[in-house]
Structures are given as C-alpha cells and as structure tokens.
Amino acid sequence: MLKLLVFDVDGTLYDLKSHEIPSSCQKAIAQAKQNGLIFVIATGRTHYGLGAALNALNPDYILAVNGAVVADGQGRVLAHHDLTPTQVERINDFCHQTQAGLAWKFLDHCYIYQYPEKIDWLQPQKESDIGSEPFIDCPAQDRHQLDLPQSASVHADPKAVEAVFNKDPELVFLRYSEDGYDVVQRGMNKAVGLQELLDQLGFTCNEVAAFGDNYNDIEMLKLAGTAVAMGNAVDEVKQLADYVTSSTDQDGIARALIHLGCVKA
C-alpha cells in the first residue's frame, strides 16, 4: 500500500512551457494529502529556495540539493551530506583559475562567490517567486571557513571541466545547461536522500511511488516500489517506469495519481 509520494520539480510538478504548476496537479496533490499520503519534493534546489508556488503545495518533506539535504516541511534539516574542506578548495581553485561563475549552497543560504553574471539561473530565480532572499553576495569568498556546503553551482568551459574532473573519484559535475554544473560528492543523488527519509519514517521502498522525467531522477525511480515517468520524460526514464503518464502540461500528475488509486477521478 502506498504511503509516500515523491516528485521531481522541473518537468514533473512544474511545467517548463507555461512556467507554472498546473491546476490539475495542485488539486490532485491536495486530495492525495487529504487521503493521508505523505507528499515529498525531490529537487536540485535548496529547501529554502523552492519558491512560493511550490511552498503553497505544503510538502511534508523536501529532498533538496539532489539528495544531499533532507528537510521537513517547516524547513528543519533532518540530514545533510557536506563536501569536505579539500573538495571545497579544489572547486574554489578550479573556478579561480578558469574565471568560472561560482555559487555555494549551504544549509542557510546560497552564497555567490564570483562572476554572478555567468550563473544563468541566478537572475531569473531572483525575479521569480523565489525572490532574492535565499542568495547572498560573498565577494570575500570566505563563507566555507565557518562551515561546509553541500553543493556548488559552477559555470565553466565544458572542456576545462572535462580536462580536470573527468572520472574524478570524489566529485561529479552534473550538467544542467550549456556550461552550468551542479557539483556534488560522487554517489550523491536523490535516492540517497529518499532512503534516509524512509529510514527515519520506518517505511519500505514498496510503500513509495516516485515521479520524474530526467536523468537525475533515475536512481530515485529505481529505489521506489512504483516508478512513474512523465510523458515528457527522456527515454531512459520511460524505459524503467512501471507507468508512463501524460506530459506535465497534459494533467500528467493527476492522471497518474488516479491510475495509482491515490485520488478519485
């Protein structure tokens, strides 16, 4: 019996065409919560930088920074995986040498170290319903001396990234745009955060349905007892899914929740 529903954000809950969460999705999730199901968001975003629209869905838990942070709906951090001091210095040194855009994601805020104009998502997020509050300019580049971050956002020449970090044993650069990367410890993904949450709640994988559309959802979908791929998902995600629903902008979430018996039509 399903007890927990976990959703990727962009391309799953959030329609990238209309830049909104479809009303059918909002209603279906509210009904599922009323029916006693636990609602979890899994995202590369920070738990404090979801934005008003996602916060309005009232998630019970958040798997943030691609699984490196687990928080509850009130923002209390339940678990986190920090980069090591050596890993942080390696990334800082690389970004200095290549004049890369660099932002560090800490448990409290996202600190912008250098070349904010190169970070393609920064200004759009500030101008969105996320706002500017989660972001702090840090030209002194010293925030990591107080405590350690969980992830970096790096905008650098892909050839330089490949030359330095290809097959790195400790760090992985997850590409999200032409020259943009989320940098996390190798082996960190949404499934790590999901497993930690399940352990804390005492649930099994068979009590979980996971919804996703892209490569960074694959480990999470494999862990869940029920894997749902969006109609707009990449082929690799569709191939491992137990159920392929319609696209996000075609009521995909609502259709899937009806199919799974979580809500009524």
Question: If classified by CATH, what would the architecture of the largest domain be?
Answer: 3-Layer(aba) Sandwich
Order of helices and strands: EHEHEEEHEEHEEHEEHEHEHEH
Please state the CA-atom Rg, rounded to the nearest Å: 18 Å
Helical content band: 25-40%
Classify the secondary structure makeup into a structural class: alpha/beta
Low-pLDDT windows of residues: none
Q: Can you tell me the number of structural domains?
A: 2
First and last CA, distance: 19 Å
Q: Can you count the beta strands?
A: 14
Pfam families: Hydrolase_3 (PF08282)
Keywords: Hydrolase
Organism: Holdemania massiliensis
InterPro entries: Cof, HAD-like_sf, HAD-SF_hydro_IIB, HAD_sf
Write the layout of secondary structure elements.
Layout: E1 4-8, H1 23-34, E2 38-42, H2 52-55, E3 61-64, E4 69-72, E5 77-80, H3 85-98, E6 101-105, E7 110-114, H4 122-126, E8 135-137, E9 151-155, H5 158-165, E10 171-175, E11 180-185, H6 190-201, E12 208-212, H7 218-223, E13 226-229, H8 235-240, E14 243-244, H9 252-259
Parallel strand pairs: 1-2, 1-12, 2-3, 7-8, 12-13, 13-14
Antiparallel strand pairs: 3-4, 4-5, 6-7, 6-9, 9-11, 10-11
Organism: Holdemania massiliensis
InterPro entries: Cof (IPR000150), HAD-like_sf (IPR036412), HAD-SF_hydro_IIB (IPR006379), HAD_sf (IPR023214)
GO molecular function, one term: magnesium ion binding
3D structure, described in words:
InterPro entries: Cof, HAD-like_sf, HAD-SF_hydro_IIB, HAD_sf. The chain has 265 residues and is an alpha/beta fold. The protein folds into two domains: 4-80 and 189-259, HAD superfamily/HAD-like (Rossmann fold, 3-Layer(aba) Sandwich); 85-185, Hypothetical Protein, Haloacid Dehalogenase-like Hydrolase, Chain: A, domain 2, CATH 3.30.1240.10. It contains nine helices and 14 strands. The strands form two sheets. It has an eight-stranded mixed beta sheet. Strands 8-7-6-9-11-10 form a six-stranded mixed beta sheet, with helices on one face. Helix 1 (23-34) packs parallel to helix 9. The longest helix is centred in the middle third of the chain and has 14 residues, at 85-98.
